[in-house]
Specification:
The structure holds two protein chains of two kinds. By secondary structure, chain A is α/β, with parallel strands linked by helices. Chain A contains 14 helices and 16 strands. Chain B has two domains: 130 residues, ApbE-like domains (T-fold, Roll), CATH 3.10.520; 59 residues, no CATH class. The chains are: A alpha/beta, B alpha+beta.
């Protein structure tokens, strides 16, 4: 989606004022907010120019209000690749050098998970507005520390939860909160793909550096890299946080020396008894990815951009007839015809949440087009210029990151894990 | 007035509009209709392995299967309809002569293992007859029952008219109707192919599907008659239509619409 049309779309979804009331982090996408920064530029440094960093960089280069002034990566080929796109930017093998540049207003961090907390905390303390990829951090303490420093410094912090900027998710959550599918009674999240989740290596010695996602030292595996996006949707829909999680994980197919699970199944239990199930498997792609929000009147599949009603409305002919009778009118109605076959669970094609839905099959491990990522970095650039943090965005990201880590803990210890009180923040 | 609506019955939706003053009486009648239709849904469900029909379909080619009184009556009934429609109404969809009924022991036996019974063109009419009895027993005189659009029972008349006037929609041209029928204690049954739903009615003599752009409508005093007649006329060629229709009593109207549409599908 074009940037301008996203802003327009936001405007059309019931007025920007209303929408921003429900999703305050969208303020920077409103036409009024766009006026504030006309002609100004956010000067950014990018820390981590691997696949995800480059994905963001390509987006940033299409935006008017940003200038890339510095690049950092400790892997030289990646740094060089980014530098060819931004020849004027300073290049650093170490992020501390980049943070010391006074002309850097903000940084975008796309490093392995284990590095997130340290770099984010240092960047915020150095007075830089910060965008950090999701998940927030590799440990509960690091997540809390990031949140604490964010609050303490008053700087901008964005976490890469792009669903918060994806129009089909915004519309879906809006519909859910308006009661369209009735009471939420269950949530099913899953992400299935069939690939080894590896990046090609220039040399075998680079295995842990490039394929850091596969090693516990750097990553929480499927939970921190995929599940965080989806667990966030559950919290967002229910406006609450699960208090319990349990589940199982294992390496069932990709027995190639990796340490993180390639198959996970978990249950997150909310205080009102609602279960959110989470499944991910990367050796079968039949189911694709989705976060199904199930209500007593209907279901929403935001990833596909579809909603489904449990009960089909009565034939219009009958309603017409009732209307006639109530108004004392005698007329004919036409509804007779070959048997009407209702949409059943397997046949129910559903209805589109909105026009022009961009979908992804979830196979890419870098990023998909039209999933809100562009709008997210655009919003960050806006915030870097204005210095205004995005209301509630960090809280959403914090809880999805913490839930992913609690899920890892539950699987590794094979037990029921309660949400620890000391890691609760205002939500 | 009371309007009851349900989906998931016999693969379609049921709407019942009852005219009357006593709300509790109408509601009770609706509840009885739902219970009875639910029972018949189970009875005619050949996909439910625990239904009597499934048992018949599974076992009757191996040895004679004993029948309940209701199933005995239904199988005799469909046999008579098979003869009356020159074999075009056939619950085996192939050759009803392979179904043998033994009145002495009240059993059914299939002479061929490939025989399987399907009440697609019968069950909704049968259910409408049961609903008519419930409505009558409840003292209701005016009602309109729409079972999946294809099977309608119009009891008495519209509260502001002398009949119920129901049109058959054109399946290929939105907003157009083929014909409007005036109904008073009549059943209107419609069968046909639509743009999305083709090849569902088979000619038992040829083993071929009716796939032309054809819609058949019949108005009869009896709901099962209407249902069976449209199914047979849909499968039969237009040449046999007159002869088949003549074998039914109390047919107020029967029409075959051979449609040509501008729409390419």
């Amino acid at each position: 989606m074009e940037r301008r049309s996203f802003i327009k779309e936001i405007g059309m979804m019931g007025g920007s004022g209303l929408l921003v009331g429900a999703f305050p982090w969208l303020y920077s996408c409103t036409p009024e907010a766009q006026k504030e920064i006309r002609g100004e530029k956010a000067r950014l440094g990018i820390i981590g120019t691997g696949s995800r960093g480059m994905y963001h960089l390509h987006h940033l280069l299409t935006l008017p209000n940003v200038e890339i002034v510095a690049l950092c990566d400790d892997y030289e080929p990646h740094l060089r690749e980014a530098a060819t796109l931004c020849p004027k930017a300073g290049t650093f093998p170490d992020y501390t050098g980049l943070l010391s540049m006074p002309e850097v207003d903000g940084v975008l961090i796309a490093t392995p998970l284990s590095e997130h907390a340290r770099i984010t905390v240092d960047a915020l303390k150095a007075g830089k507005h910060t965008f950090c990829e999701k998940s927030m951090a590799a440990t509960l303490d690091d997540c809390l520390e990031m949140y604490r420093i964010y609050k303490e410094t008053g700087k901008v912090l964005y976490i890469g939860q792009q669903r918060l900027y994806d129009p089909k998710y915004l519309k879906a959550i809006d519909m859910i909160h308006a009661g369209m599918i009735g009471d939420i009674t269950g949530i099913r999240c899953y992400w299935y793909r069939n690939n080894d989740w590896r990046r090609p290596l220039d040399h075998p010695s680079l295995e842990r550096k490039i394929n850091w996602r596969l090693y516990k030292e750097f990553s929480g595996g499927l939970m921190t890299e995929l599940a965080t996006h989806q667990l966030q949707v559950g919290n967002w829909a229910l406006k609450m946080i699960p208090d319990t999680v349990t589940g199982f994980g294992d390496i069932v197919f990709w027995k190639d020396g990796r340490e993180v699970y390639d198959s996970v199944s978990l249950v997150y239990r909310y205080p009102n008894g609602i279960n959110m199930t989470y499944e991910s498997l990367i050796s079968n792609k039949f189911n694709g990815l989705e976060e199904q929000i199930l209500g007593h009147k209907g279901s929403i599949e935001p990833e596909k951009g579809k909603y489904y009603f449990e009960e089909v409305k009565p034939a219009p002919g009958i309603l017409q007839l009732i209307n006639q009778i109530e108004h004392g009118i005698f007329d004919h109605v036409s509804f007779a015809g070959p048997t009407w076959v209702p949409e059943t669970a397997s046949k129910n094609q559903g209805k589109n949440i909105m026009e022009n839905i961009s979908q992804t099959d979830g196979a890419s491990s870098v990023g998909a087009a039209g999933d809100g990522s562009l709008e997210l970095v655009d919003a960050f650039c806006h915030a870097v210029i204005t210095g205004r943090p995005a209301d509630r965005l960090v809280e959403e990201a914090y809880y999805s990151s913490v839930l992913a880590l609690l899920g890892v803990q539950a699987m590794e210890e094979q037990r029921i894990v309660k949400f620890p009180e000391q890691y609760k923040i205002p939500y | 007035m009371f309007h009851g609506s349900r989906t998931g019955l016999m693969g379609t939706g049921l709407d019942v509009l009852m005219i009357g003053e006593e709300a509790s009486l109408l509601r009770t009648a609706w509840e009885r209709i739902v219970a009875e239709t639910g029972r018949l849904h189970g009875m005619f469900n050949r996909f439910d392995p625990s239904s009597e029909l499934s048992l018949i379909n599974r076992r009757a080619a191996t040895s004679p299967v004993s029948l309940s009184a209701e199933w005995w009556d239904v199988l005799r009934d469909v046999g008579q309809y098979h003869r009356r429609t020159l074999g075009y109404f056939d619950v085996t969809l192939r050759d009803y002569r392979k179904v043998r009924l033994d009145g002495k022991h009240r059993t059914v036996f299939f002479t061929d293992a490939s025989v399987s019974l399907d009440f697609g063109g019968y069950a909704k009419g049968y259910a409408l007859e049961k609903m008519r009895k419930i409505l009558t027993a409840s003292g209701i005189r005016q009602a309109l029952v729409n079972f999946g659009n294809s099977s309608v029972w119009a009891m008495g008349a519209h509260p502001h008219g002398k009949t119920w006037n129901i049109g058959v929609v054109h399946p290929f041209e939105e907003g157009k109707s083929l014909k409007t029928y005036t109904l008073f204690n009549h059943s209107l049954s419609t069968s046909g192919n639509t743009a999305t739903h083709t090849r569902h009615i088979i000619d038992p003599h040829q083993g071929t599907y009716s796939c032309g752009r054809k819609v058949v409508a019949a108005v009869c005093g009896n709901c099962v008659d209407a249902e069976v007649l449209t199914t047979a006329l849909m499968a039969a060629g237009d040449a046999s239509a007159g002869k088949i229709t003549a074998a039914f009593r109390d047919v107020s109207a029967s029409d075959i619409f051979n449609l040509q549409s501008n729409l390419e599908i």
